[in-house]
Design a protein that fits this description.
This protein is mainly alpha-helical. The protein has one domain. It is built from three helices and no strands. The protein is elongated, with a radius of gyration of 14 Å.
Length: 55
Amino acid sequence: MISIISRLRTAAAKRAAYHRTVAEISAMNRHIALEDLNIYPGDAEEIAYKAVYGH
């Protein structure tokens, strides 16, 4: 039972981290994102997924 609860907590934490990361990248100034970080804010979901879930 404890392992189920632990897995649910981990999944919830990862989901929250994913949504936070998407929001932060999406809200980023486009010029800074492109020029300084070399990322396109339109790819926020893909970047966040790879950062949080590692795929």
